[in-house]
Amino acid sequence: MRKLMYSLSELWEDPKFKYSSIVLGLLIFISILSYFSPYDPYKWYLLPTNQPPSLRHILGTDGKGQDIFWVLSFSLRNSLMLAVVAAVVSRVIALLVGILSGYLGGAVDRLLMALTDTFIVMPVFPLLLLLSSLIKNYLTPPVLGLIVGVFSWSGDARVVRSMVLSLREREFMITSKFSGMTVKEVIVGDLIPYLLPIISGGFIGSMMGAIGFEVVLSILGFVRVETPTLGSMFHWMINFQAMLLGYWWWVLTPIVTAILLFTALYTLSLSVNEYLDPRTRVQRIVVVK
Amino acid sequence: MKFIKSYLIPRIIQYLYMVVIGITLIFLIPRLSPVDPVEQILNTRLRIQSTTPEAILKIREVMEELYGLKGSLWEQYINMWKRLLKGDFGPSIVYYPAPVIVLIRNSLPWTIGLLTLTTLISWFMGLVLGTFLGYSKKSSLSRIWTAVFMAINPVPYYIFALTLLLLFCYVIPIFPLGGGFSVGQRVALTWSFIKDVIKHGTLPALSLIILGLSGWSLGTKILVQNLSEEDYVVYAQMMGLSDQKILYSYVLRNAMLPQITGLGLSLGGIFGGAMMTEILFTYPGIGTLAYNAVRANDYNVMIAISFFSIIAVATALLILDLLYPLIDPRIRYR
After folding, report:
1. Which long-range contacts (CB under 8 A, 24 or more apart) does B145-148 make?
2. B234 touches chain A (CB under 8 A)
3. Residue A135 with chain B: CB contacts under 8 Å
4. Nearest residue, CB atoms, B309 vs list A123, A234, A259
5. Which residue from B minimizes the CA distance to A270?
6. What is the pLDDT of residue A289?
7. Which residues of B touch A114 (CB under 8 A)?
8. C-alpha A76: how far from its chain's center?
9. At residue A109, what are phi and psi to the nearest 5 degrees?
10. β-bridge mates for residue A67, sequence order
11. pTM for the full predicted model
12. ipTM strictly over 0.90?
């Protein structure tokens, strides 16, 4: 815990990290506010339509008679949840496949790597379209996150495997094995701590991918656009011709939010990756008194 | 001989199992889903007209025949392979009775023309620019460009393309609003048609190139930055080699390897089409075809597109693997 606090305070020195954590914090705060929303996001025409921002509705209302701020807060909650589900699922599968295939080797390794290679070449987008045309009504944010996660673990599984292959030859692994630790204990105690930085580095990238995917699918109308997400905000904005009608508050809200979210996640991943990279770490070494 | 045995044959085997597993997944996904495509089509069709129960049964039978849903799972699987090897994907439902393969043949040249060009251009420019950015990372010019690319890179494609569209079709109308060619133009290999196609393709190409360029050059920059701190580069600098020599024969050669794999993957991915681009600019390619197919539950088209995407990506990787010994001496001498 103290180590974590220390890393955080060290990261805080990085302006990129500062910017991204402030923006992300703000967006997460808005998404938490959705639990206190006075309106049901699934009900239309609760309010007068297309009102510009005012004190009562700080981001105005849209053509569906909903308060844009509260829709935004539900959308952020759903989009972030989808992103986290996708990232966690893909990380877990990557860890599992990578460790098993690297540690056990042999036939298991060959079989799992054949599967991994196939998933690398699997074109995710056409497949997701095929899926969405079949089960569009089941595609709620967590389900979509699950599907995106299942299709995006392959690259990292290869990275984990190659890490495990080199770790397996290290002395402490042999010591653990000879001292009678079971395979499970070795994996949890010796391997996972080394793999966590690599895995968490890809976490943010995986989140970005999932959110981007959802936006594209929603704009095209291939998921349940009734559920408020970042993508469905775009969908309705485009569907109601908000741009042509000049409702700038309705057009700008999703656009600005998307750009803020993506730049924040992107700079966060840059800063964390830089922090985890041992080569740049050496440059930062200072004498701690 | 040793090369063939230890390099070529494993690669070809890998190619074959990739394709087989991928296509098997495509076969399984619609069958595992809780929705029956035939039922779905029947629902949408029968909403408009009423038919006798016998006719419905007859329609269902024909539908199952068309979709290859007859018999046990294993029989269906074998039948699918037989049909795929003959290039028969059945008829399209939306453009009935046009065969799917014809639809794909019509829209493929548009997508391939647009995407091959933009991918190659943005890849090449990204490699050159990224090398410069990474090698002279302390210069102010490099810093400005890095900042510009870092600002462009995370912008969602849709927003970026829409801004271009508004700017160059509405505010300063120098490009046509969309389409692959002007209405009334005949598709033929005449000079006026080619000019028309180029004029329509510029804006979608521009949107893809700018975003692609920022991604490729940032990726290359990080690679080059790490490579230029390697010992052999420091050694080359101490030997007094010129910057140009170090850059081209030491750093770039190594930085290219992962980038070439990336290029191969994105060239293979072309087949999936750039759906967002094609829809925004109403471009008559594979992406638009897929979009219409999904909206109308046209499974045969969807399956054909997924099938070709897998083949394209796997083939691109195979070709890359075969070219790799030419680029990477470590593989050649092993």
Report:
1. B145/B217, B146/B218, B146/B221, B148/B214
2. no
3. 33-35
4. A123
5. B150
6. 41
7. 14, 17-18, 21
8. 12
9. -60, -50
10. A61
11. 0.81
12. no
